[in-house]
Amino acid sequence: MGQKGSSGLFRAVSAFGVVGFVRFLEGYYIVLITKRRKMADIGGHAVYKIEDTNMIYIPNDSVRISHPDEARYLRIFQNVDLSSNFYFSYSYDLSHSLQYNLTVLRMPLEMLKSETTQTRQESFDIFEDEGLITQGGNG
């Protein structure tokens, strides 16, 4: 930590991925995966468990005064244990079932494109029944 490169920049932290960004009252924080453990291989795709994270404040010049509740919100958020039962993969979609992912992987590209087009055509506008005008202008 704190290694200086030839460009004059310092490496603040090494990370395996970005969990996301969070904003409370004063500015944004980036939540980084700093420790991971390989848990499984699914069809040649590695699945990792988050072992540890690091939260880094992103300085913001527009924030002039510090808010008294910022530290309290930060403590509450840090009570969420991201190292228990949070998994990720760089190449495998964990948000779908194994059956779905295997079906999509085996499906020819032409069929996949036509299925996507079909799904779009079958969609409906939830505001249509209410008689509200949507962005398309019909309704």
Question: What would you note in describing this structure?
Answer:
It is built from 3 helices and 6 strands. The protein has 139 residues and is α+β, with helices and mostly antiparallel strands. The protein has one domain (17-118). The model has no long low-confidence stretch (mean pLDDT 78).
**What's the alpha carbon Rg, rounded to whole Å?**
22 Å
Our count of domains comes out at 1
Strand content: 25-35%
State the separation between the terminal residues, measured CA to CA.
58 Å
Q: What's the helical proportion of residues?
A: 10-25%
**In which order are the strands of the major sheet placed?**
3-4-5-6
Looking at this protein, list some descriptive labels.
single chain; 139 residues; alpha+beta; four-stranded antiparallel β-sheet; two-stranded antiparallel ribbon; 23% helix; elongated; hydrolase; transmembrane; transmembrane helix
